[in-house]
Amino acid sequence: MKTDSHNPKVWSAESDRQFSTSKLGKKISRLLREGTTSQRQLSEFTLRDPVFVATRGIEDLSQITGVSTSTISRYARDLGVASFAEFRAAVGNIIGSLIAPVSKLNETMSDDSSRNGAVERSLASAAVLVAQLQETETANRLKAASRKIGSANRVYVVGFGLSAHLAAMLTLGLQPYRENVVNIAQYGGTESAAARLASSTTGDLVVAISFPRYSKDAVEMVRFARERGAEVIALTDSTASPISEYANELLLAPAQHPVISSSSVPGLVLIEALVSEFLISDPENLKKAERLASAIATYLAGSG
Length: 304
Fold this sequence. Notes:
Blueprint: H1 13-20, H2 23-34, H3 37-48, H4 50-55, H5 58-65, H6 69-78, H7 84-115, H8 118-131, H9 136-151, E1 155-158, H10 163-174, E2 181-183, H11 189-197, E3 205-210, H12 216-227, E4 231-236, E5 249-252, H13 265-280, H14 283-296
Parallel strand pairs: 1-2, 1-3, 3-4, 4-5
Helix pairs in contact: 2-3, 7-8, 9-13, 10-13
């Protein structure tokens, strides 16, 4: 699939959720899971960028997805609408009430991208994406995730590729404050990671982190853990992400970037917020934090 990285769209996590849970969004999500290759491709693009679909023509959609216009028309009929024009209008009706809060940020991103170089565009992009996380629903979901982490028997953290670094940050953040936090990909490759997850069962929790480009191993391990009875918190960028369908709790962080394949900054911001919430949610954790600070003080530069 081709991507339009020159002018990335900003689509907030809550807007993503509301679109994907609309009547049309549910049909699109079903084709994403069960459809043909072209249906999955068009469904993923629509869920990721409904603004593009609602504001551009069928030729534009064909060019950016690599799917023929006749197949796109057939896709619209598969969704229960008569034509692409009707499909585009239906998408537009849904997003009309959702796009207003982010339209100004879209304009800011576009303006910065048009007049600045890669450094400026990257910094501006990060600021815009992080701003999208300041939603009540995102905060509520982080608090719910924190409670699940606190009540689980064991917590397994899953992340491969670039997401492995985010998984390590979450693991290091949680380990001082609760037992049985396991980063399954810490060493030994995929086989060792699968072996660490093999004992997961009911009462356990898997926190799966997956951002583009997605890892097939992450999807397989999340599916395995759900089959074993473990609950799953998915930290990813979209409801179109392949791990989202297995999530009991979905944490969304936008990952668009004007130059590279995806941004890790919003994901790291959510991880820091999640660890912070877990830390302050239990007075015993605050005591542990004080003891930890005292224990490591002598090892820090400038301590004497």
